[in-house]
């Protein structure tokens, strides 16, 4: 298990790095909860390290940067979504609540009976330490944050919030390598980090699939489950609702496969996609081509709009070079998030096969986003 709060060890790490000549880069970012009046600058090209580091400098009221984590239980009875935000409401989408600070975490857990709890923890600063490629962050003045190993193979979320009565941890042991939108994370520096040509929306997937364990206590009620975990991040230097028109996104585990799909539409109507598949922990494809995600039933027109009927599921097809066509069907088990006219998120079951291979079953967590641009 990763020891929490490496921030306490920053001075020691710096000394050791200097003394030993270690080459692992270390960076520290302090992100104020009061946004800047200066223009924001977003990073859209990869560097040789800092994969999961903050990507927006001088965060202002129309920019955003966040770290997203989720877990879907193996039996589809539970789900967890945790998002550490650095954004004013004006940097996100219509209807976002202004919580009085740009730095906060939103935590939600659902069961088959519906939402078990929705908790928010606010702070005046978010402190993020990046060692190698992995990030760790803490909401200043709280005992709530996350830790990541330098190679991003392990992450842990720790929550201790006396106000809500929520305490506990979420651990992630990655079983699928990280990737850029169009290439594995091992690709040389200079990879595009934005979603598609001319998009001003960044996305990185540090943990496409993980063995995850949730262990929470909410005012005396134990919430414990395990399943498939996931972690990514999004960012941009302009309001999110102006950077993209719609998307279908999700991740699934079935048999030996870990799948991540991201089919998105620019404000001008251009469709592009990120296509990722790993088998037994080895990347089979990580590209920006060969993927199609469509709603069930077929009568639902693509791309979705805020007025579209909710889909009943999704069909996913992806070209896997040298292996054939991946065919996946996703069926809802439960709606876990609904923001009218903007987002729908579900957990569900999947069936999938590659080429003429075995049909496998598994679990998925996925969403539809639409923006009235």
UniProtKB/TrEMBL annotation:
InterPro entries: AsqO/PenF-like_C (IPR057722), DA_N (IPR056402). The keyword Signal applies. Residues 1-21 form the signal peptide. It holds the Pfam family AsqO_C. Residues 242-369 form the AsqO/PenF-like C-terminal domain. Residues 53-235 form the Diels-Alderase N-terminal domain. The keyword Signal applies. Keywords: Signal. This is Hydroxyneurosporene synthase.
